[in-house]
Amino acid sequence: MKVTVDANRCEGHARCWEICPEVFSLDETGHGFVEVPEVPSHLVAHVQIAEQNCPERAIILS
Ligand code: F3S
Fold first, then answer.
1. Domains of the chain
2. pTM over 0.85
3. Does residue 19 have its Cβ closer than 6 Å to ligand 1?
């Protein structure tokens, strides 16, 4: 599974990073970005929870 953050949608709610800091980071403006685009299998469930909890629906799974 691959994950990206749509920078045009992200408003910096930081839930992605709170839920799965192994995959998501925050930049200097507090916006989320992906550190590990190819999600390891043991983190897939966490990334799915992050996707469901982003208020802007900015997390894209593929
Ligand atoms: Fe942005 Fe959503 Fe994370 S708004 S900081 S991608 S929880």
1. 3-61 (3.30.70.20)
2. yes
3. no
- Ligand 1 centre to CA of 38 (Å) is 18
The whole-number pLDDT of residue 60 equals 98
Percentage of the chain surpassing pLDDT 70? 100
Nearest atom in ligand 1 to the alpha carbon of residue 57 is 2
Secondary structure of 14-56 as H, E, C letters: CHHHHHCCCCEEECCCCCEEECCCECCHHHHHHHHHHHHHCCC
Q: Stretch 20-46: mean pLDDT, rounded?
A: 98
